[in-house]
Design goal:
Nucleotidyltransferase, domain 5, 27% helix, single chain, 507 residues, alpha+beta
Length: 507
């Protein structure tokens, strides 16, 4: 091999006589351990390239190594990395690869980019760092299977400190709500969770640390947030004490957020802090492919949290525990007309579903307050030209309110607690009002301070009732009369009637 011939031997070959004696070349090659072909190859190179070039061996490396990224691609990767780093965004190999892929460029692998960054001196190699292949990930199977909440203290340039609370979905890593609060307190935690529930419904589980603002179960108490979640059917859970890795997804999210905020300093006002948090949430949810959503460690991410959240059906919480015999109190408050569109009046009965937001549902220009404990619960509404009836997910009627005239609006309050009176229906003198009631799981209906039992065989069925000043006629779903009940006077106690024992048509 020509690369093994030392330079001194090469010099002797170049200076060898042009017309040597017979056998002299053979003896020279034997003495120096080279072949005659190598001897004449070196002499020919000296003639073509010059004696100086022939003294040094040729490089055996290929002109363009197959494993080496072209310089233009490396330069573009370094440019993107610098741009991401200046913006305060993750600028590791996977983040750079995802950005190159989004810009339609030739994208090297994560390992190739890591070698390029190390060779160009923009990162410090860490061979002792734990490899990604050894990571053990745990993720819930569906969106809303579990949410995480944690707070991060951040100090503005004027010395003011604020706490940034964020609710994150465990499955998709989507930020569901953010709130800049004065501190990590129970009211701020409740506010940010209510924001998330109003937008995305209630989760099946809710994970926090053991801070006093979040979860007091390990201290033998119950926080306001825990009480609120349990009313929604959500199971509040907490991590082990002194084990922040249990909430690792939220901890990692705050690391990314803090890097973004630091890159956008100075931040003098809380208003600017809120604006930057909103910008970060939009980028994080909708533009930035999340590495944690890759199916394999080291794979270039291509799924954003919003896409992952919307890809499969969401998990549902357990039904909220609402009693079947819940009485209500109806209060009418004058209210100016609202821009909400009223449903058309071209049929006798309509049905709709409404999500409770901040303790209220809105339908047909009617605002019905049911209490903040029902936030995030979807109510079923049955209404006609005269009455709006609110039914919970278990089929229990929470109350009925009059429907305002077309063009008008009204505000009512239904108290879904045991205290108060049962549902009242205003009947004009000498008139009759026909209403519908859904039979609760116990086989009963409530109306006009009457608790009427019709039997569990009709549970979930909608019955028609003709209400007058003095009595109530109950019809089954086929129109047959189940019975006639006398209405109690306002001064009399509430009545309990059992029609299940005497049920037969045309009673």
């Amino acid at each position: 091999m020509s690369s093994r011939v030392p330079p001194r031997t090469r010099q002797s070959i170049i200076q060898f006589p042009d017309k040597p004696a017979r056998g002299e070349v053979t003896r020279f090659c034997l003495e120096h351990g080279i072949s005659r072909a190598e001897f004449y190859r070196i002499r020919q190179r000296a003639v073509v390239e010059g004696p100086e070039a022939a003294v040094l061996p040729r490089s055996t490396a290929p002109g363009r190594p197959s494993g080496r990224t072209v310089k233009q691609t490396e330069d573009k990767a370094l440019e993107i990395r610098a741009r991401l780093d200046r913006a305060g965004l993750d600028a590791g190999p996977l983040s750079v690869a995802a950005q190159m892929l989004a810009e339609g460029l030739d994208t090297p692998s994560r390992a190739t980019l890591a070698r390029v960054f190390a060779r160009r001196g923009v990162v410090t190699p860490a061979p002792d760092k734990r490899p990604r292949s050894s990571w053990r990930r745990f993720v819930y199977d569906a969106p809303n299977g579990c949410w995480q909440l944690d707070g991060m203290d951040y100090r503005l340039d004027n010395g003011v400190k604020r706490c940034i609370l964020q609710v994150e979905d465990d499955h998709s890593r989507k930020i569901l709500a953010s709130l800049v609060a004065t501190s990590e307190n129970s009211q701020a935690a409740l506010d940010v969770v209510k924001m998330a529930v109003a937008r995305y419904g209630a989760p099946a589980k809710f994970l926090t640390d053991n801070g006093t603002a979040f979860n007091l179960s390990r201290r033998g108490g119950e926080s306001g947030l825990e009480k609120y979640l349990k009313r929604l059917g959500t199971v509040p859970i907490s991590g082990k004490p002194s084990k922040p890795t249990t909430q690792g997804k939220n901890e990692r999210l705050h690391h990314t957020l803090q890097k973004f905020l630091d890159a956008n300093r100075p931040i003098w006002t809380v208003k600017r802090l809120r604006l930057l948090v909103e910008q970060f949430v939009d980028y994080y949810n909708n533009a930035r492919p999340h590495q944690g959503l890759s199916t394999k460690p080291g794979q270039i991410p291509d799924m954003t949290p919003t896409r992952a959240y919307e890809a499969i059906p969401k998990a549902l919480p357990a039904p909220a525990p609402i009693t079947a015999d819940t009485p209500v109190r109806t209060v009418t408050i004058p209210h100016k007309p609202s821009p909400h569109r009223a449903e058309p009046l071209d049929a006798t009965t309509w049905q709709a579903d409404r999500l409770v937001i901040y303790g209220r549902i809105t339908i047909a220009r009617t605002y019905i307050q049911v209490g903040t404990r029902l936030d995030g619960v979807t109510m079923h509404i049955i209404f006609d030209d005269h009455t709006i009836t609110v039914i919970d997910p278990d089929g229990v009627i929470l109350g009925a309110v009059p429907r305002p005239e077309p063009g008008a609006a009204a505000h009512y309050s239904i108290n879904p607690h045991r205290s108060g009176r049962p549902i009242a229906v205003d009947v004009p003198p000498g008139g009759t009002i026909t209403v519908q009631r859904l039979v609760n799981p116990d086989g009963e209906i409530w109306i006009c301070r009457c608790r009427i039992r019709v039997g569990q065989s009709l549970a979930g069925k909608q019955l028609t009732l003709d209400v007058t000043e003095h009595d109530i006629t109950v019809h089954d779903p086929d129109g047959n009369i189940l019975g006639v009940v006398t209405r109690p006077a306002d001064t009399d106690p509430a009545a309990r009637v059992n029609l299940a024992k005497t049920r037969h048509p045309n009673t």
